[in-house]
Design goal:
Elements (H helix, E strand, L loop, with lengths): L12 E2 L2 E2 L5 H16 L16 H13 L14
Antiparallel strand pairs: 1-2
């Protein structure tokens, strides 16, 4: 979508031990920082929405939403008329 980003972050472990992973907030902050630096201007709102995927059904529902979301761009209130 031209006005927002969807992503699924996967945190894994090695040998049954949890890796010292950064927080979701830190990952998003660094992502926004890199994009802003490359673009040369601020592009992002301050906050973000997150959701913990708890099972495969939840994952499939969210993946379907992300996959079909671009098809809804014309319905978005920020879509410029063609």
């Amino acid at each position: 979508m031209p006005n927002h980003v969807h992503m699924i972050l996967v945190l894994t472990s090695q040998g049954g031990r949890t890796l010292c992973a950064p927080t979701v907030s830190r990952v998003i902050k660094q992502f926004k920082g890199v994009v802003t630096k490359r673009a040369g201007l601020p592009l992002w709102q301050k906050s973000f929405h997150d959701h913990i995927i708890r099972n495969e059904a939840d994952y499939l529902r969210i993946w379907q939403y992300i996959d079909t979301n671009p098809l809804k761009w014309r319905e978005d209130c920020f879509c410029a008329p063609a």
